[in-house]
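hiii, so i know i said id send this last week but things got crazy w the move. better late than never?? heres the sequnce for the chain we talked about at the cafe, plus the structure i predicted for it. fair warning i was half asleep when i ran it
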Amino acid sequence: MLANHYAISQQVTYRGMVWLLAAQLVVMLPFAFYLPIWLIPVMLISSYWRFRVLKGESAQPKLFVRLLVVALGIAGVLLSGMTLLSLDTMVSLLLLGFAFKSLEAVRQRDALVVVFIGFFLVAISFLFSQSIPAGAYGVISLIILTGALIANQQSPAQQISRYATRSSLKMASMMLFQCLPLMVLVFIFMPRFSPLWSIPSFESHAKTGITDSMAPGDIANLSKSDELAFRASFEGRVPQSDELYWRGLVLNNFDGKSWQQLPDEYDTSELKHQLLYNMAWNDARIEIQGDPFKYEVIYEKTGQPWLFTLTPTTKVDGKTIKFGDYRVMSRGDIQSPFMMNAVSYPDSKRDLELSDYARNLALQLPASGDEKTREFARVLRESSLSNADYVEKVLNRFTDQSYFYTLRPPLLGDKDTIDKFLFETQKGFCSHYSGSFVFMMRAAGIPARIVVGYLGGEWSPDGEYLSVRQYDAHAWAEVWLEGEGWRRVDPTSRVAPSRVEGGLEAAVEYEGSFLEGNPFSARNFKWLDGIRKKMDSIQYGWRRWILGYDSESQAGLLKSVLDKMSSIPLAALVGALFLGIFLLWFVMLGLGRRQNYEAYEHQLYRKFCKRLEKHGVLREPQQTPYEFALIASKKLPSRAAAIQDFSSLYQQLCYVPRNGAGRDEPHQKMRRLLREIS
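okay and structure toks below
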């Protein structure tokens, strides 16, 4: 009999199941933005099935049914288009198990498994997003999960109290608050070790930003997005608007329609090996001139390795690689916000002597096609005094002829795209102008290449940092001239000078096409734009001081502290902080207080006896509550009814078992009777 009672008390109750469902829903909801959304309906159906079992309306699913459901779920994950060994697949399978656990959440230990998996999933969710809203949502998830843990450890009598939900949430919030000081200390002082293993890359995130090839119209598509690319802050000298050319990729090969980095297509790992082998970084190829730009950049997650810097970047920290074409790449794909410090000398001369490999890359053209442009370039070069003069004549053509800068360029087809643009449509975006310019340089035997990155950015209201967004994407050219090396040339600036001086919005103001693909952007509403800028400033602080607090930042902080105090005072300070946290817990948890385990009805009865004692009626230790009530009623006939009712309620609570909710009403009556007796 006792064993059966114990087994029943260990089962998950209806209210406990409601808590588990709420916790599961809160934990799984953020993953719907990145993983198959059908996982949430699966969780809801599993919970609904479990609720029917608790109500006796359905039978507990048999082992065969559970195995079949799991098999169908795994098949659904694999058919969702995800690679088997990827982070997305692993997380989806974990979410599937998290959802299906509702089907067999029979005992409290099953509820514990659900809650602990939920804690793990909250940590995993930060691999997908580390923004301030994601952090706030993670705190809410922890409170709900802890509340579910508390609720499933309560007795059935405690769970049905009308204050049970409020009590569980209050206790969960207090537990998290009590851990906060320790969390801060661990965050500041716990050493940042490199991970012992790497995780597979994301697939659910479409790679964002600039791609590794360029065709007419590609960058124009990016201009429709106001998604953040990166933020930069400067130490000392701040660049002017025409110096904010953020170099990302170098495109060398043209197939008649599109440009790509090298003659052959490589994945990013193979590309790095090719560049390191053929175009390795060499300090001797740079002639340092002028004053440097010293800056810090925080890149958003893109799923790609491209980093965007001012050219040439001579010093860079972090897990990065510099290459001989003056690009900088991350060693791995950027799957979380990435912070980097760099130094650039924009006035320096680069590659006064050009290697045969680089020269061949910078002169490549298809064997045929665009014959009209080739002939025009030959004639124009013959009439030019030098290569520099030829460059200027080509740029003057963009100024003198009726060329237009537009986000809505006409289609050019698949053949002779350069001819059609230069001599027919004459309307295009930066990719049209840079591509045709480089083609004309190469047709005249002048080494040239396309550089893709970003131009400009938006300064914060207080001018502390620069925000660069996807609509700032830009393409320009570089030409190699004898005695000068590589020179940056932006043919777009001849057609639309406002693109350099005022940004894309100013350049296309006349046609009203700015952010036409994103009509709900905050930039389109003046009253929201101020809020957007303020939130952007807060997010920048979050990125820099919280997410950017890595091992180097920690080492810098500890070094600055150690420079001001010796190791003994520092150890004493840290020890005092931990002692302070312990004392805070000691006070908040009431460890120094004597616990009062007396039931509330006994506390009320003691007050009852003290009230009667004031009226001259003293209770003897051997008297029962019934006997004492008879004596008190005779001595105080005006209060006899209240005395008898109070004693009757007290005896009922003492000798007739009631659950937690069933005691609330008698307690209220006893308090009212006490007031009548006084």
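btw The chain has three domains: 2-189, 214-527, 600-677. thought thatd interest u
miss u guys!!
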